[in-house]
Protein: Multidrug-efflux transporter
Amino acid sequence: MGSQKITEENHRLARHESTSGRVWQLAWPTIISNLLFTTVGFMHIKIAAGLGTSAVAAVTTGHRIFFVVQAILMGLSVAATAVIARHWGANEASRAEMASWTALLLAMVIAGVLSIPVLVAPLQLAGLFGLDPETTTAAAGFIFWLGIFNLFSAANMMIGTALRATGDVLTPLYFLFFSTILNVVFGYLLAFGIGPLPVMGVAGVALGGGAAGSLVTSAFVVCWWRGKFVIRPVRRLNIDWSAARNLMRIAGPAVTEQAVVQVAFLAFFAIVAQYGTKAFAAYGIGISLVAFPIVVGFGFGVATATLVGQQLGAGRPDRAMKTGWRSLRMALVAMLTLSLIMAWHAESLASFMITDPEVASLTVTFIYVICLTQPMMACDFALAGALRGAGDTRFPLFATFVGIIFGRLLPAWLCQSLGLSVFWIFGVMVLDYTLKAIMLLHRYRSKKWLNLPFDRSPGTAL
Structure:
């Protein structure tokens, strides 16, 4: 029955003339999903702004540690998308379900291991940024309370990934919508102690938001467990070793890439922190604002990875190649449009987020700089998404390493050593994304990624 559904869907896609239409059909719900996710981070910063500049810096620090954990899981989700989409495109429903089940089990183990330092040593993690004692203590509380819910986040990510890999991008969106609303409301209530609730400040933002998100995730898992979605649970503590090998082979470079990115971001954050709490807070506010056009590009990347995987699984490499170029053009238009709007209203946005004039001025500069990187970031999302959808996760890792080390960290360190202002630190991000874009364009045009091996041998379940 599952294979019949897949076959009918693939025939429908084969008749679909517009590649752009199919990219957009998959991209827009993913874009909305990521905009909702970004809204949570944005509102966390906005809530913290009501508590002062130190609270903004604390939430920024907490988010960065949380994203380290999430980024490692995202590496696994990249592999899961490639494997599940390839099986789905080849009409192998049972293999797709086993791959999704295996990815979920692996994600839970990874999330459990990564949660240990977050729960045991939050103060030491927060101390890595060299902020003042008050900010460091507040950040530690945020890290601890948010870390309690890492397993729920892992489950949500993997089930959502499995559904998107089959083309069902609406179901995860529905659940994320309710999660976003409850996350912001609960975070606000506990931060300021509304009604009978205690005043918890920065820690309350994390506890309230994490608890609300976990409630919605629990409902998501229950619906999936009861077979309500197109891809169903295996319901056994089994691992398909063929699927696991595919996942780990593809996930290895993707996880490494995310680890490199997050460690480098931590180092970059530490450099920015040397310029003081206000510069650090401005960087955090700026990231929360420019995340909106960025997640639009991420949505196109997810859609591209899904379509490329399905089309290669169905034996249509020409359409896979075409998908990447169409996605790039669409991502460029969308991201440039949003970034221009944001740059035009940069001062108003910064003033809305925080009343401190120095922090607001630094935030405006950061917005201008990151808006300049949008064309290069569009290349990163669209073309790297296509490569990952084909199982080529090694080259994006290489491009990321070159960009972030030689385009960001070394120039930033040099600027700091020379005593240059924080504006130069912000500016090096343009070089980072330019190097990545050039490398990804060269790799994509080579077409070498279209013929990578993919293991379809029967798996062994234990």
Q: What stands out?
A: The chain has 17 helices and no strands. The first helix runs from residue 2 to 15.
